Hints:
mainly alpha; Arc Repressor Mutant, subunit A; 2 domains; 9 helices; about 75% helix; disordered N terminus
Amino acid sequence: MTESQPPEESRLEAFRAYLRLLARLQVDPRLRRHLDPSDLVQQTLLTAYRSLAQFRGRTDGELAAWLRQILAHQMTHAVRDLTRLRRDVNRERSFEEALADSSARLEAWLVAEQTTPGEQAQRNEQAARVAAALERLPGPQQEAVELHYWEGWTVAQVAEHMNRTPAAVAGLLQRGLKALRQHLANPE
């Protein structure tokens, strides 16, 4: 008989890929060698698990918002520690807003406006599935898809950032979207 995770832990764990996607989108590329999005997410989930009794929400949407707020605090503290700057409430707020914006772009990409609680729950589940599928893409495809579709960068901007030609980036995007569709159609 295998041990299973407590319901609270598995509920939090379901958001791991989603949070990692948001962290990757928000960590400044110049800081990525010092700030690992996976470490930020691990600390976020640890903090959330320790603070679960303080969570007053009921829905997965409320849980996602609470986790984004914790992630924003973790990112703010990590950047502050890295740069040794004094705490700046405006910087912390900007991380919260940036994470909310990234989350909103992800949700908008998945579906048009949905209003029922069932549809919202389905959208949250789908966002987590997309984030998990993105993690299965090869690094360059993942980066190109995230920068173009979630950050809204042009192909030329992505090409410059990745030090590739626009044609190469277009190929990465095409292959990345094809693989993403396959991963979503056949989750493992």
